[in-house]
Design goal:
The chain is α+β, with helices and mostly antiparallel strands. Helices cover about 15% and strands about 30% of the residues.
Length: about 525
């Protein structure tokens, strides 16, 4: 057994020496990366497709505590029959800074009382205590044992709301939680802060899951984790406020919602500049049918942007007001008379349960490292103790703008060369004239998998952590979802599982290497 563990760790170390260096501090730049192939409409779990557990046989749902004070769930992935991997913020039973106290109190009293508070819009409406035990292992990883109440995971469940279908075999207690010694200390959409940290944790189950639930395989540095993948989770189906679509003035922005009523205006067209009215009246102007926006310039005048009066998206309807501009990464700027077309987000059926249904989305884009680095740097301070090791999941979108020049009341379409002297109000050089639309993972999806199907097996490449952009909440412009990069933590996983590491499944290339080493 010890020999086999040595083989795993030795093979991992030699692969890392021969392969790709850690990418969050040493990014490899793919000079010929094809951004056009990153475009994929609507890969959000919000409004995503319902699926059966058989399609994602390794996925689990869990609450921090079985007798929970609220309905906040997380998602996790089965990596052996008795181990689940998830996000650290889903296991935050000890307030940051109190870990030492929990360990010392456990030694002196046999347990530590952790205060749990139920809130409603930040107002405390109830509280109680849970009993846990804390120990440091593997240096200073925090091991948490749930004494009372017990935590539990739901395995093999497509709808956690349907209690009648949840048999005893589908509910397994959590024996212990393991948090990385540099675990992220915030919540899913909190800023990283000066500490940073890794949003990764492991759950040890009290008994093995049924053999019909197949654990997911793990990616190492020999696996390409930047390819189009899949995401899944038990998170929110719809969000408030809802998002605009890719047409209109403000794309993938949140609709202003002054009341509980739908914010979308459907009985009149969106605002339009007089210069645009005159432009669209011009008979000698040839306009492409599927245009997104027009930019009109004239000598000595500012650029005027013109838009359609109706979105081309079949699910979109009407338009809404937008009060903040998030086009520039890391900035929020108030705007007057801003607007965008209401996406299908705004019209999702209220009869559908809000969360705890398993949803899946395929063909999700993982951003190249150099683009992910831009978003990561915007979400951490200049000096951070532990730089998060992440993948960024979101859809790359190109600006689709037709440029026109007006001289002596005559409009002339600008050529590509002449267009270079103008720039869209949202373009940034570091994003190469494009922008990113988030994957839209939301509360309940976090801790869930980013994964790839390799023949008949699934390979786990990321763990959903949250969105850290200025726009916050779920989804939106330039707000990719951060996923913990699994390949950066395989050594930690192996050392934590110890003898159970022999039960881990690996992607094919690494599995073949192991077999050769073990011969």
């Amino acid at each position: 057994m010890i020999n086999y563990l040595f083989i795993i760790i030795y093979t991992l170390s030699t692969v890392e020496l021969q392969g790709t260096p850690p990418r969050n501090t040493n990014y490899e730049y793919e000079e010929d990366f094809d951004f056009d192939n990153l475009v994929d409409k609507g890969s959000r779990l919000v409004g995503g497709f319902r699926t059966k557990h058989d399609e994602v046989p390794f996925i689990v749902a869990f609450a921090d505590l079985e007798q929970k004070l609220d309905k906040k769930f997380c998602t996790g992935s089965l990596i052996t029959s008795t181990w689940v991997i998830t996000a650290a913020h889903c296991t935050q039973l000890v307030d940051p800074g109190y870990e030492d106290q929990c360990v010392k109190t456990t030694k002196s009293k046999g347990f530590f009382e952790s205060q749990l508070v139920k809130t409603n819009n930040d107002s405390v409406i109830g509280e109680r205590y849970s009993k846990i035990k804390c120990h440091y292992v593997n240096g200073k990883d925090l091991e948490i044992t749930l004494v009372d109440p017990k935590g539990s995971v739901y395995i093999g469940v497509s709808d956690v709301n349907d209690k009648e279908t949840i048999k005893k075999e589908n509910l397994i207690n959590i024996q212990k939680m393991y948090r990385h010694k540099y675990a992220y200390k915030g919540k899913y959409n909190d800023a990283y802060g000066s500490y940073g940290g890794y949003d990764i944790a492991l759950l040890k189950l009290s008994k093995p899951a049924n053999k019909k639930y197949s654990p997911v395989c793990l990616a190492t540095t020999t696996f390409d984790d930047l390819q189009q993948s899949m995401i899944a989770g038990y998170g929110n189906y719809y969000r408030t406020p809802c998002l605009t679509d890719e047409y209109g003035q403000y794309k993938y922005h949140y609709c202003e919602r002054p009341s509980k009523e739908n914010p979308c205006i459907v009985d009149k067209p969106p605002p339009e500049d007089e210069a645009c009215v005159n432009f669209f009246k011009e008979k000698n102007v040839s306009i492409s049918i599927d245009f997104q926006e027009m930019a009109i310039t004239a000598p000595g005048e500012n650029i005027t942007f013109c838009y359609r009066n109706q979105s081309l998206n079949p699910g979109s309807k009407g338009w809404c007001k937008v009060k903040n501009d998030f086009y520039v990464i890391g900035e929020s700027r108030p705007v007057d008379n801003g607007w965008g077309f209401c996406s299908s987000d705004c019209f999702l059926g209220e009869s559908e349960p809000e969360s705890l249904l398993l949803r899946q989305k395929s063909n999700v884009s993982v951003l190249p490292d150099r683009i992910c680095e831009i978003f990561l740097n915007q979400s951490i301070p200049q000096h951070v103790k532990h730089i998060p090791k992440i993948l960024c999941v979101g859809n790359w979108e190109n600006w689709k703008t037709d440029y026109w020049e007006k001289i002596d009341n005559k409009y002339t379409r600008l050529t590509q060369k002449n267009m270079e002297k103008y720039s869209n109000f949202g373009e940034q050089e570091e994003l190469e004239g494009g922008y990113v639309a988030s994957s839209g993972a939301c509360a309940g999806d976090f801790g869930g998998p980013l994964y790839f199907k390799e023949k008949s097996a699934f390979v786990l490449t990321g763990i959903a952590s949250g969105e850290k952009g200025k726009i916050g909440q779920c989804g939106g412009i330039n707000n990719p979802t951060h996923y913990v990069r699994v390949q950066e933590f395989v050594n930690w996983i192996v050392s934590t599982l110890h003898q159970d590491a022999r039960k881990l499944c690996w992607h094919k290339k690494f599995s073949d290497l192991l077999k050769k080493k073990n011969e």
